[in-house]
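[scheduler] slot 2 assigned
[scheduler] job type: sequence-to-structure, two independent chains
[scheduler] chain ordering preserved from manifest
[runner] begin chain α
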Amino acid sequence: CSGGFYLQINRGEMIHADRPCVFITHPGVYYEYGNWKTPTRSHNFLCFFGPRVERYLETGLLQINDGKPLIPVSEPEKVLELMQDIIALLHASRTTPPRAVLKLEELLLLLHEENSPSSSVPRHRRDTLTELMEIIRNHPEKSYDFDRFAASHGMNPEYFRRLFKAQSGLPPLQFQIRCRMRKAADLLTGTGLPVKEICRRCGIESEFYFSRLFKNTFRVSPGEYRREFPSDLSVSCK
């Protein structure tokens, strides 16, 4: 939501906000919201369900806190773009495209990062980790020596991995793999490159290993993904 609005949970205390925020609803709770201070507001929403949601909750990727439900977002344009991409993918297909699930997970990661500058990540480390995550997102195909990075910033490897997961929702290597798979999905649907070349451009030497990672992420092989989604309202997270 953006523009002034209020949120009330189970007819309890009214919470007000006058900046872009996200809040997560779930069954069994009554939510009420509307305009506050301003005559208009802008809001978008997504509904999602399925077995993966339980895993999101178990791993902490999806965090529900009815006591503090509002998640202020520092990059509202990025959040809105992801939501609109997901909605467009859903409208273009009768079933849930795997790419929509990946973008949903990217959205949850982004919200996790917004909501996670917590006491577990010291303030002076947050900018460093955010910068590293952005570098990995932009160039997931590159090789990164995370132990060396940790040492150069005065951290031991175990401490660095713990902080990275606390801020991003995933350990550094898993975060990089997820970024590589997103790049692969974009290349599969946006170019006519052969899978072997896409594999190389994603920084993975073995085509067999690449295909296994891709199928673990999207539940279909790279070839099947390209055939089913040659281009690119609820998301079924199976």
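[runner] end chain α
[runner] begin chain β
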Amino acid sequence: MNQEKALDLIIHKIKKDYAEDVAFLAIMGSYARGTHHEHSDLDLFFLPSTPRGESLGFTFILDGIGYDLWPISLSRLQNIASQKEPLASILAEAKIKYWHTEEDLERFLALKEKAKTSASKEVLLEKLPLLKSKLQESAFSLLLMKDLAEFRKIAMKQVKTIFYVLSLLHGTAPSGNYLKNKENLITMTGVPKDFYAHLDGLFEEDTLEELKTHVIDVTETAVHLIEDFLGSAEARRSPAKEVFNGFYEELVNHYHKIRHAAERNDPKECLLAAASLENEISETLAHVSGNLPVLPPLVGAFHPNDLRSMVDAAKIHEDAFLLYLKNEEVPLRVFETIEEFSAYLDNLS
């Protein structure tokens, strides 16, 4: 097959002209899993050692078959291996085809092995609350849909997110292959017996009514599994008084950015600042024990043609967040005058 010949040519080119620029090259996807056929695309990724090596990345079509030569930085590979992105399978299933030095080979094998292991508790506590919100928001949108084609498109994203959640909780790498995911997760504890029947139903049913029934069931299962884990992890969390110490002082600038962007009528910067602030708070709350605040929406209040509403929303949000910090007895270092700050410094020992 041309795929194998093309791979040989790519490896030959690296050895001949890019030996110092590419640390290793690996195949991923169906070729790595051994599930490929004569029309399968060939997907490869490599770790560049230099900017010149990074420039080697490109996509192309040969005899009707797609090829992807994808450069991935070491920092991103490390994030993927740590399951901070739903791409761990590209490493866990990957097969190395070229390496420059034995050290490069060892680096690849270490990344591959790490991708096969469970995500750390820190990653789970950071990711799962965000994924829970994502699942619930998507499910709500799906229930309101009236277009079958649009429903199917968004439902497939929901399935992908659900597999990511289950894989994180099960301690396995999510696969890009549906049947492989089912095989990996079929024995997972806590999953109802009819879960996979509902999951399959999202591919097999033809009416919106039936499809919505299935999406509710599989989403509720994933959300309940997340809640069960977060509940059991409660003892490993810390009080808000500890987690949020120094947080507001560092993040207050986001509120200023929202107001400043609104004054300059800059919707892009306004939305970026609002989203960044909400994400920072949400991710930090994942590490907090006890009662969690119900904060008014920021991004939800965004209207590109009415940024005045964002100024008001930022004020309401900041007041609510400060009230939560006060109720949780989080210490705040806020000074109204330079004299107050000077006195604070004088009292530092």
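[runner] end chain β
[qc] chain β: The first strand starts at residue 22 and ends at 28.
[scheduler] slot 2 released
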